[in-house]
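R.M. (postdoc): so does anyone remember the format we settled on? I'll just put the C-alpha coordinates first.
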Protein backbone atom coordinates (compact mmCIF):
# COMPACT_ATOMS: atom_id res chain seq x y z
CA UNK A 1 0.00 0.00 0.00
CA UNK A 2 1.42 3.37 -0.99
CA UNK A 3 2.30 6.11 1.43
CA UNK A 4 0.11 9.14 1.94
CA UNK A 5 0.89 12.26 -0.07
CA UNK A 6 1.16 14.43 3.08
CA UNK A 7 4.04 14.47 5.50
CA UNK A 8 3.52 14.18 9.24
CA UNK A 9 4.14 17.92 9.66
CA UNK A 10 1.40 18.65 7.15
CA UNK A 11 -0.95 16.23 8.89
CA UNK A 12 -0.22 17.83 12.26
CA UNK A 13 -0.80 21.32 10.89
CA UNK A 14 -4.03 20.19 9.24
CA UNK A 15 -5.31 18.65 12.51
CA UNK A 16 -4.43 21.79 14.46
CA UNK A 17 -6.21 23.95 11.89
CA UNK A 18 -9.32 21.78 12.11
CA UNK A 19 -9.25 22.01 15.92
CA UNK A 20 -8.98 25.81 15.75
CA UNK A 21 -11.87 25.94 13.31
CA UNK A 22 -14.03 23.80 15.60
CA UNK A 23 -13.22 25.98 18.59
CA UNK A 24 -13.98 29.14 16.63
CA UNK A 25 -17.25 27.64 15.38
CA UNK A 26 -18.28 26.63 18.90
CA UNK A 27 -17.58 30.15 20.19
CA UNK A 28 -19.95 31.71 17.64
CA UNK A 29 -23.65 32.25 18.45
CA UNK A 30 -26.11 29.63 17.20
CA UNK A 31 -29.87 29.79 16.91
CA UNK A 32 -33.07 27.77 16.67
CA UNK A 33 -35.89 29.10 14.46
CA UNK A 34 -39.27 27.37 14.85
CA UNK A 35 -42.99 28.00 15.33
CA UNK A 36 -45.30 27.36 18.26
CA UNK A 37 -49.01 26.61 18.24
CA UNK A 38 -51.23 26.65 15.17
CA UNK A 39 -49.16 28.92 12.99
CA UNK A 40 -50.58 28.18 9.56
CA UNK A 41 -48.88 27.53 6.25
CA UNK A 42 -47.73 31.11 5.61
CA UNK A 43 -46.16 31.53 9.04
CA UNK A 44 -44.47 28.14 8.69
CA UNK A 45 -42.95 29.28 5.41
CA UNK A 46 -41.92 32.58 7.02
CA UNK A 47 -40.07 30.65 9.74
CA UNK A 48 -38.21 28.69 7.05
CA UNK A 49 -37.26 31.94 5.32
CA UNK A 50 -35.98 33.44 8.59
CA UNK A 51 -34.04 30.23 9.17
CA UNK A 52 -32.53 30.75 5.73
CA UNK A 53 -31.37 34.21 6.79
CA UNK A 54 -29.69 32.80 9.93
CA UNK A 55 -27.67 30.19 8.03
CA UNK A 56 -25.17 28.63 8.49
CA UNK A 57 -25.22 29.11 12.29
CA UNK A 58 -28.68 27.63 12.75
CA UNK A 59 -30.38 24.24 12.74
CA UNK A 60 -31.45 23.96 9.09
CA UNK A 61 -33.42 20.73 9.51
CA UNK A 62 -34.86 21.39 12.94
CA UNK A 63 -38.21 19.71 13.60
CA UNK A 64 -40.30 20.65 16.64
CA UNK A 65 -43.39 18.56 17.34
CA UNK A 66 -46.55 19.68 19.08
CA UNK A 67 -45.81 17.66 22.20
CA UNK A 68 -42.39 19.31 22.63
CA UNK A 69 -42.52 22.11 25.19
CA UNK A 70 -40.24 25.12 25.46
CA UNK A 71 -38.47 23.43 28.37
CA UNK A 72 -37.56 20.51 26.09
CA UNK A 73 -36.05 22.88 23.52
CA UNK A 74 -34.03 24.65 26.22
CA UNK A 75 -32.74 21.31 27.53
CA UNK A 76 -31.61 20.29 24.03
CA UNK A 77 -30.09 23.69 23.24
CA UNK A 78 -27.57 23.57 26.09
CA UNK A 79 -25.40 20.65 24.89
CA UNK A 80 -25.59 21.90 21.28
CA UNK A 81 -24.30 25.39 22.15
CA UNK A 82 -27.44 27.21 20.98
CA UNK A 83 -27.59 30.78 22.30
CA UNK A 84 -30.79 32.24 20.75
CA UNK A 85 -34.35 31.20 20.00
CA UNK A 86 -36.47 32.84 17.30
CA UNK A 87 -40.06 31.67 17.82
CA UNK A 88 -42.96 32.63 15.57
CA UNK A 89 -46.56 32.26 16.72
CA UNK A 90 -49.96 33.31 15.47
CA UNK A 91 -53.11 34.43 17.27
CA UNK A 92 -56.50 35.59 16.07
CA UNK A 93 -55.35 39.20 16.06
CA UNK A 94 -51.71 39.19 14.94
CA UNK A 95 -48.43 37.32 14.36
CA UNK A 96 -45.60 37.53 16.91
CA UNK A 97 -41.85 36.95 16.89
CA UNK A 98 -40.04 36.17 20.16
CA UNK A 99 -36.29 36.62 20.38
CA UNK A 100 -34.84 34.78 23.41
CA UNK A 101 -31.33 34.79 24.81
CA UNK A 102 -30.29 31.52 26.46
CA UNK A 103 -29.99 30.41 29.15
CA UNK A 104 -31.19 33.27 31.36
CA UNK A 105 -32.94 35.70 29.03
CA UNK A 106 -34.05 38.35 28.26
CA UNK A 107 -36.99 37.76 25.93
CA UNK A 108 -38.07 40.34 23.33
CA UNK A 109 -41.57 40.06 21.89
CA UNK A 110 -42.22 41.71 18.50
CA UNK A 111 -45.49 42.08 16.67
CA UNK A 112 -45.19 41.40 12.93
CA UNK A 113 -47.32 44.09 11.28
CA UNK A 114 -46.32 43.19 7.69
CA UNK A 115 -44.31 40.44 6.09
CA UNK A 116 -43.40 39.20 2.61
CA UNK A 117 -42.05 35.75 1.82
CA UNK A 118 -38.93 35.05 -0.21
CA UNK A 119 -40.83 33.69 -3.17
CA UNK A 120 -42.92 36.87 -3.40
CA UNK A 121 -39.86 39.12 -3.23
CA UNK A 122 -37.97 37.15 -5.87
CA UNK A 123 -40.97 37.01 -8.21
CA UNK A 124 -41.30 40.81 -8.09
CA UNK A 125 -37.69 41.35 -9.29
CA UNK A 126 -36.65 41.31 -12.91
CA UNK A 127 -33.21 39.96 -12.06
CA UNK A 128 -32.07 38.49 -8.79
CA UNK A 129 -28.80 37.04 -7.54
CA UNK A 130 -29.19 34.20 -5.05
CA UNK A 131 -27.08 31.02 -4.98
CA UNK A 132 -26.05 28.45 -2.41
CA UNK A 133 -22.52 29.81 -1.92
CA UNK A 134 -23.99 32.96 -0.40
CA UNK A 135 -25.30 30.99 2.59
CA UNK A 136 -21.97 29.43 3.54
CA UNK A 137 -21.20 32.45 5.74
CA UNK A 138 -23.37 34.52 8.09
CA UNK A 139 -24.74 37.83 6.79
CA UNK A 140 -23.35 41.27 7.54
CA UNK A 141 -25.55 43.03 10.10
CA UNK A 142 -26.30 46.72 9.52
CA UNK A 143 -28.16 48.69 12.22
CA UNK A 144 -29.63 52.06 11.29
CA UNK A 145 -31.22 54.79 13.46
CA UNK A 146 -30.67 52.96 16.75
CA UNK A 147 -29.96 56.14 18.65
CA UNK A 148 -30.31 57.02 22.36
CA UNK A 149 -34.12 56.87 22.43
CA UNK A 150 -34.27 54.68 25.52
CA UNK A 151 -32.87 51.67 27.30
CA UNK A 152 -35.23 49.33 25.46
CA UNK A 153 -33.77 50.51 22.11
CA UNK A 154 -30.22 49.85 23.31
CA UNK A 155 -31.21 46.41 24.58
CA UNK A 156 -32.89 45.61 21.26
CA UNK A 157 -29.77 46.66 19.32
CA UNK A 158 -27.56 44.56 21.62
CA UNK A 159 -29.76 41.51 21.15
CA UNK A 160 -29.52 41.75 17.36
CA UNK A 161 -25.76 42.33 17.51
CA UNK A 162 -25.25 39.21 19.63
CA UNK A 163 -27.37 37.22 17.20
CA UNK A 164 -24.48 37.13 14.69
CA UNK A 165 -20.71 36.66 15.13
CA UNK A 166 -18.66 39.79 15.53
CA UNK A 167 -16.45 41.04 12.68
CA UNK A 168 -12.94 42.44 12.93
CA UNK A 169 -12.70 45.06 10.18
CA UNK A 170 -8.90 44.73 10.02
CA UNK A 171 -8.77 40.96 9.45
CA UNK A 172 -12.10 40.18 7.78
CA UNK A 173 -12.10 38.48 4.41
CA UNK A 174 -14.35 40.37 2.02
CA UNK A 175 -15.04 37.23 0.01
CA UNK A 176 -16.98 35.83 2.98
CA UNK A 177 -19.43 38.76 2.97
CA UNK A 178 -22.04 37.83 0.41
CA UNK A 179 -25.23 38.88 2.19
CA UNK A 180 -26.44 41.80 4.25
CA UNK A 181 -29.17 42.05 6.90
CA UNK A 182 -30.48 45.59 7.35
CA UNK A 183 -32.44 46.58 10.47
CA UNK A 184 -33.81 50.10 10.23
CA UNK A 185 -35.60 51.63 13.24
CA UNK A 186 -38.16 54.39 12.73
CA UNK A 187 -38.47 56.51 15.91
CA UNK A 188 -41.73 58.13 14.76
CA UNK A 189 -43.71 54.96 14.11
CA UNK A 190 -41.54 52.85 16.51
CA UNK A 191 -41.33 50.15 13.85
CA UNK A 192 -38.38 48.07 12.77
CA UNK A 193 -37.78 47.23 9.09
CA UNK A 194 -36.23 43.81 8.48
CA UNK A 195 -34.56 43.53 5.04
CA UNK A 196 -32.29 40.87 3.56
CA UNK A 197 -29.99 41.65 0.59
CA UNK A 198 -27.50 39.94 -1.66
CA UNK A 199 -24.18 41.79 -2.16
CA UNK A 200 -22.50 42.17 -5.53
CA UNK A 201 -19.21 43.98 -6.23
CA UNK A 202 -18.57 45.32 -9.78
CA UNK A 203 -15.73 47.50 -11.10
CA UNK A 204 -16.43 51.11 -12.13
CA UNK A 205 -14.77 53.51 -14.54
CA UNK A 206 -15.27 51.30 -17.58
CA UNK A 207 -17.63 51.71 -20.49
CA UNK A 208 -20.88 49.89 -20.76
CA UNK A 209 -19.44 47.49 -23.33
CA UNK A 210 -16.42 46.68 -21.16
CA UNK A 211 -18.70 46.01 -18.19
CA UNK A 212 -20.70 43.67 -20.38
CA UNK A 213 -17.56 41.78 -21.36
CA UNK A 214 -16.56 41.45 -17.73
CA UNK A 215 -19.87 39.87 -16.81
CA UNK A 216 -20.29 36.15 -16.39
CA UNK A 217 -22.55 35.89 -19.45
CA UNK A 218 -20.87 36.94 -22.69
CA UNK A 219 -22.94 39.45 -24.77
CA UNK A 220 -24.41 38.68 -28.20
CA UNK A 221 -22.29 40.39 -30.92
CA UNK A 222 -23.92 38.86 -34.00
CA UNK A 223 -25.17 42.28 -35.19
CA UNK A 224 -21.86 44.07 -34.72
CA UNK A 225 -19.21 44.55 -37.42
CA UNK A 226 -16.35 44.91 -34.95
CA UNK A 227 -15.75 44.53 -31.24
CA UNK A 228 -14.81 48.20 -31.11
CA UNK A 229 -18.48 49.08 -31.56
CA UNK A 230 -19.25 47.25 -28.31
CA UNK A 231 -16.37 48.80 -26.39
CA UNK A 232 -16.83 52.34 -27.64
CA UNK A 233 -20.57 52.90 -27.74
CA UNK A 234 -22.08 49.89 -26.02
CA UNK A 235 -24.30 49.12 -28.96
CA UNK A 236 -26.88 46.40 -28.52
CA UNK A 237 -27.28 46.95 -24.78
CA UNK A 238 -30.67 47.78 -23.32
CA UNK A 239 -31.28 50.54 -20.78
CA UNK A 240 -32.47 48.02 -18.19
CA UNK A 241 -28.97 46.56 -18.01
CA UNK A 242 -27.54 49.83 -16.69
CA UNK A 243 -26.94 50.30 -12.98
CA UNK A 244 -27.18 53.76 -11.35
CA UNK A 245 -23.75 53.88 -9.70
CA UNK A 246 -22.64 56.97 -7.80
CA UNK A 247 -20.93 58.21 -4.67
CA UNK A 248 -23.41 56.39 -2.48
CA UNK A 249 -22.17 52.93 -3.50
CA UNK A 250 -18.65 53.39 -4.94
CA UNK A 251 -15.70 52.58 -2.69
CA UNK A 252 -12.04 51.63 -2.91
CA UNK A 253 -11.43 47.97 -2.20
CA UNK A 254 -8.83 47.25 0.52
CA UNK A 255 -8.29 43.75 -0.90
CA UNK A 256 -9.10 41.80 -4.00
CA UNK A 257 -12.65 40.48 -4.21
CA UNK A 258 -13.86 37.54 -6.26
CA UNK A 259 -15.15 38.78 -9.59
CA UNK A 260 -13.74 40.11 -12.83
CA UNK A 261 -12.08 43.48 -12.44
CA UNK A 262 -12.34 43.74 -8.61
CA UNK A 263 -8.70 44.45 -7.84
CA UNK A 264 -7.09 45.80 -4.71
CA UNK A 265 -6.90 49.62 -4.40
CA UNK A 266 -9.33 49.96 -7.32
CA UNK A 267 -12.76 51.54 -7.17
CA UNK A 268 -15.76 49.24 -7.32
CA UNK A 269 -19.48 49.63 -6.82
CA UNK A 270 -21.41 47.77 -4.11
CA UNK A 271 -24.81 46.70 -5.37
CA UNK A 272 -27.56 45.20 -3.23
CA UNK A 273 -30.32 42.95 -4.48
CA UNK A 274 -33.14 42.09 -2.09
CA UNK A 275 -33.71 38.38 -1.70
CA UNK A 276 -36.21 38.43 1.18
CA UNK A 277 -37.94 37.97 3.45
CA UNK A 278 -39.33 41.36 4.48
CA UNK A 279 -40.82 42.09 7.87
CA UNK A 280 -42.09 45.15 9.68
CA UNK A 281 -41.70 44.59 13.43
CA UNK A 282 -42.89 46.49 16.48
CA UNK A 283 -41.47 45.89 19.95
CA UNK A 284 -44.24 44.92 22.39
CA UNK A 285 -42.51 43.95 25.63
CA UNK A 286 -39.24 42.85 27.21
CA UNK A 287 -39.08 40.17 29.91
CA UNK A 288 -36.25 39.09 32.18
CA UNK A 289 -36.29 35.31 31.81
CA UNK A 290 -36.80 32.85 28.98
CA UNK A 291 -40.49 33.17 28.15
CA UNK A 292 -41.40 34.43 31.63
CA UNK A 293 -40.20 36.78 34.33
CA UNK A 294 -40.59 40.41 35.27
CA UNK A 295 -41.74 42.74 32.49
CA UNK A 296 -39.02 45.34 32.00
CA UNK A 297 -40.77 47.23 29.20
CA UNK A 298 -44.24 47.23 27.65
CA UNK A 299 -45.30 49.47 24.81
CA UNK A 300 -49.03 49.36 25.63
CA UNK A 301 -49.16 48.99 29.42
CA UNK A 302 -47.54 51.64 31.61
CA UNK A 303 -47.54 51.21 35.40
CA UNK A 304 -46.82 53.71 38.13
CA UNK A 305 -44.19 53.25 40.81
CA UNK A 306 -46.82 52.23 43.39
CA UNK A 307 -48.23 49.58 41.08
CA UNK A 308 -44.77 48.22 40.40
CA UNK A 309 -44.05 48.04 44.13
CA UNK A 310 -47.37 46.26 44.73
CA UNK A 311 -46.57 43.75 41.98
CA UNK A 312 -43.12 43.10 43.44
CA UNK A 313 -44.57 42.67 46.94
CA UNK A 314 -47.17 40.21 45.64
CA UNK A 315 -44.50 38.27 43.83
CA UNK A 316 -42.30 38.15 46.92
CA UNK A 317 -45.27 36.94 48.99
CA UNK A 318 -45.92 34.26 46.40
CA UNK A 319 -42.28 33.15 46.53
CA UNK A 320 -42.37 33.13 50.35
CA UNK A 321 -45.49 30.94 50.39
CA UNK A 322 -43.89 28.64 47.87
CA UNK A 323 -40.78 28.32 50.06
CA UNK A 324 -42.98 27.60 53.10
CA UNK A 325 -44.83 24.87 51.21
CA UNK A 326 -41.55 23.37 50.10
CA UNK A 327 -40.25 23.33 53.68
CA UNK A 328 -43.47 21.73 54.93
CA UNK A 329 -43.28 19.12 52.19
CA UNK A 330 -39.67 18.37 53.12
CA UNK A 331 -40.66 17.92 56.78
CA UNK A 332 -43.57 15.64 55.81
CA UNK A 333 -41.27 13.55 53.67
CA UNK A 334 -38.77 13.23 56.54
CA UNK A 335 -41.53 12.27 58.98
CA UNK A 336 -42.89 9.65 56.61
CA UNK A 337 -39.40 8.28 56.08
CA UNK A 338 -38.88 7.95 59.84
CA UNK A 339 -42.24 6.21 60.20
CA UNK A 340 -41.30 3.78 57.46
CA UNK A 341 -37.97 3.06 59.14
CA UNK A 342 -39.67 2.47 62.53
CA UNK A 343 -42.27 0.22 60.95
CA UNK A 344 -39.53 -1.67 59.15
CA UNK A 345 -37.59 -2.21 62.39
CA UNK A 346 -40.73 -3.33 64.20
CA UNK A 347 -41.59 -5.76 61.42
CA UNK A 348 -38.09 -7.22 61.44
CA UNK A 349 -38.21 -7.68 65.22
CA UNK A 350 -41.57 -9.46 64.95
CA UNK A 351 -40.21 -11.68 62.19
CA UNK A 352 -37.22 -12.57 64.39
CA UNK A 353 -39.49 -13.45 67.33
CA UNK A 354 -41.72 -15.58 65.09
CA UNK A 355 -38.66 -17.35 63.68
CA UNK A 356 -37.32 -17.98 67.20
CA UNK A 357 -40.69 -19.44 68.28
CA UNK A 358 -40.79 -21.69 65.24
CA UNK A 359 -37.25 -22.85 65.91
CA UNK A 360 -38.21 -23.91 69.50
CA UNK A 361 -39.79 -27.13 68.18
CA UNK A 362 -36.72 -28.17 66.27
CA UNK A 363 -33.91 -30.51 67.28
CA UNK A 364 -31.86 -27.67 68.74
CA UNK A 365 -30.90 -27.76 72.41
CA UNK A 366 -33.67 -26.62 74.78
CA UNK A 367 -32.55 -23.57 76.71
CA UNK A 368 -34.65 -24.74 79.66
CA UNK A 369 -37.21 -22.92 81.81
CA UNK A 370 -36.90 -19.36 82.98
CA UNK A 371 -34.86 -18.63 86.16
CA UNK A 372 -38.03 -17.86 88.17
CA UNK A 373 -39.52 -21.20 87.17
CA UNK A 374 -36.28 -23.00 88.05
CA UNK A 375 -36.22 -21.46 91.56
CA UNK A 376 -39.87 -22.36 92.27
CA UNK A 377 -39.40 -25.98 91.17
CA UNK A 378 -36.29 -26.36 93.35
CA UNK A 379 -38.18 -25.05 96.40
CA UNK A 380 -41.02 -27.46 95.77
CA UNK A 381 -38.60 -30.39 95.47
CA UNK A 382 -36.81 -29.43 98.69
CA UNK A 383 -40.15 -29.13 100.55
CA UNK A 384 -41.22 -32.52 99.20
CA UNK A 385 -37.93 -34.11 100.34
CA UNK A 386 -38.23 -32.57 103.83
CA UNK A 387 -41.82 -33.78 104.16
CA UNK A 388 -40.79 -37.32 103.11
CA UNK A 389 -37.95 -37.28 105.61
CA UNK A 390 -40.39 -36.21 108.36
CA UNK A 391 -42.76 -39.09 107.51
CA UNK A 392 -39.99 -41.65 107.69
CA UNK A 393 -38.54 -40.28 110.93
CA UNK A 394 -41.74 -39.58 112.88
CA UNK A 395 -44.07 -42.06 111.25
CA UNK A 396 -46.94 -39.67 110.64
CA UNK A 397 -47.96 -36.91 108.25
CA UNK A 398 -46.54 -33.43 108.98
CA UNK A 399 -48.79 -30.54 109.92
CA UNK A 400 -49.93 -28.12 107.21
CA UNK A 401 -48.08 -25.20 108.84
CA UNK A 402 -44.75 -26.98 108.57
CA UNK A 403 -44.83 -27.54 104.79
CA UNK A 404 -47.49 -25.29 103.19
CA UNK A 405 -46.52 -26.23 99.61
CA UNK A 406 -47.06 -29.94 100.27
CA UNK A 407 -50.39 -29.25 101.96
CA UNK A 408 -51.48 -27.16 98.99
CA UNK A 409 -50.59 -29.92 96.55
CA UNK A 410 -52.49 -32.42 98.68
CA UNK A 411 -55.60 -30.25 98.54
CA UNK A 412 -55.22 -30.10 94.73
CA UNK A 413 -55.32 -33.89 94.56
CA UNK A 414 -51.61 -34.57 93.92
CA UNK A 415 -50.52 -37.66 95.94
CA UNK A 416 -47.54 -37.18 98.29
CA UNK A 417 -44.17 -38.05 96.91
CA UNK A 418 -45.12 -37.22 93.27
CA UNK A 419 -43.93 -34.09 91.52
CA UNK A 420 -46.36 -31.84 89.72
CA UNK A 421 -46.30 -32.57 86.02
CA UNK A 422 -45.91 -29.97 83.32
CA UNK A 423 -48.05 -29.17 80.38
CA UNK A 424 -49.04 -32.15 78.24
CA UNK A 425 -47.17 -32.31 74.97
CA UNK A 426 -48.62 -33.44 71.72
CA UNK A 427 -47.02 -36.40 69.98
CA UNK A 428 -44.01 -35.49 67.90
CA UNK A 429 -43.43 -32.11 69.55
CA UNK A 430 -41.15 -33.25 72.35
CA UNK A 431 -37.42 -33.05 72.34
CA UNK A 432 -35.71 -35.81 70.46
CA UNK A 433 -38.94 -36.94 68.74
CA UNK A 434 -39.52 -36.42 65.10
CA UNK A 435 -42.55 -36.73 62.90
CA UNK A 436 -42.28 -40.59 62.96
CA UNK A 437 -43.28 -40.87 66.60
CA UNK A 438 -45.28 -43.96 67.57
CA UNK A 439 -46.89 -44.75 70.93
CA UNK A 440 -44.97 -47.38 72.95
CA UNK A 441 -46.15 -50.99 72.77
CA UNK A 442 -47.79 -52.46 75.89
CA UNK A 443 -45.58 -54.79 77.84
CA UNK A 444 -46.89 -58.41 77.74
CA UNK A 445 -45.75 -62.01 78.06
CA UNK A 446 -43.17 -61.76 75.31
CA UNK A 447 -41.21 -59.37 77.51
CA UNK A 448 -41.34 -61.68 80.57
CA UNK A 449 -43.77 -59.64 82.67
CA UNK A 450 -45.95 -61.72 85.01
CA UNK A 451 -49.58 -60.77 85.42
CA UNK A 452 -51.80 -61.24 88.41
CA UNK A 453 -53.14 -64.50 86.97
CA UNK A 454 -49.73 -66.13 86.87
CA UNK A 455 -47.62 -67.43 84.02
CA UNK A 456 -50.21 -70.00 82.93
CA UNK A 457 -53.15 -67.66 82.48
CA UNK A 458 -55.47 -68.46 79.60
CA UNK A 459 -56.92 -66.10 77.02
CA UNK A 460 -60.23 -66.01 78.89
CA UNK A 461 -58.40 -64.95 82.05
CA UNK A 462 -56.85 -62.07 80.17
CA UNK A 463 -60.29 -61.00 78.89
CA UNK A 464 -59.68 -62.14 75.30
CA UNK A 465 -62.02 -64.35 73.26
CA UNK A 466 -60.97 -68.03 72.88
CA UNK A 467 -59.35 -69.22 69.72
CA UNK A 468 -61.34 -71.09 67.14
CA UNK A 469 -61.25 -74.83 67.42
CA UNK A 470 -60.53 -74.90 71.17
Amino acid sequence: MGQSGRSRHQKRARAQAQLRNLEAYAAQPHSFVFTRGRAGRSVQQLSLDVRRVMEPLTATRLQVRKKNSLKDCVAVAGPLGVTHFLILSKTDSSIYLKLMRLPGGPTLTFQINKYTLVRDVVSSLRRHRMHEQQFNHPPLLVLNSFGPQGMHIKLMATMFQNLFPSINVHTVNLNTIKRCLLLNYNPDSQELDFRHYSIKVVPVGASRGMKKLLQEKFPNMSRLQDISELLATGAGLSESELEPDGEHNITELPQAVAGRGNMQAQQSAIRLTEIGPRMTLQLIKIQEGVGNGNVLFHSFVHKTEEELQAILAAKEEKLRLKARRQNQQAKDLERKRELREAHKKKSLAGMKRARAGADGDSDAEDPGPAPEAVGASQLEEEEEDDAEYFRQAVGKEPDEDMFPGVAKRRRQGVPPGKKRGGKAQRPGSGRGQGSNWRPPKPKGRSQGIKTKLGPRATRQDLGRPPRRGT
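R.M.: ...and that's the designed sequence above, right after the C-alpha coordinates. Also worth knowing: Residues 235-242, 427-435, 444-453 have pLDDT under 50 and may be disordered. DSSP finds ten helices and eleven strands in the chain.
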